[in-house]
Design a protein that fits this description.
The protein has 120 residues and is mostly helical. The protein is built from seven helices and no strands. The chain has helices at residues 11-27, 31-38, 42-50, 57-66, 71-75, 80-94, 97-119. The protein is globular, with a radius of gyration of 16 Å. The relative contact order is 0.12.
Length: 120
Amino acid sequence: MKDTLKRTKNPANVFAGRNLKYFMDVNGIEDEQLAASFGIEPDSLQRILSGRNAISGPYNYILLNEYNCDLNFIYGGVSYSNKTNIKFEVTKDKTSDAKMHEAVSRELHYLADVLDDMSE
């Protein structure tokens, strides 16, 4: 009986969780740090990042006010290009070519995931 009631992930939650993870990566925010800011355990944050749970209103408030996160980035991906361009410029100025290669590679994988999700 449990197999027939298997819970499926809401695609909007998966999209938002993936974008939140990317926001964390770009800004150097550790899982433990964000979980503490939200007042939750790291495993609860993992459920948000995986798309099993939605990002609640109070968490959006924390992202917006404590982390200066444009919520369009999380929910629509609208502003990621400006954020990425700024990150690339900072990376280019402060790190080696290998680090720049890694940052560009990470961004390309992210964009490939977005395109893949759009085609589903």
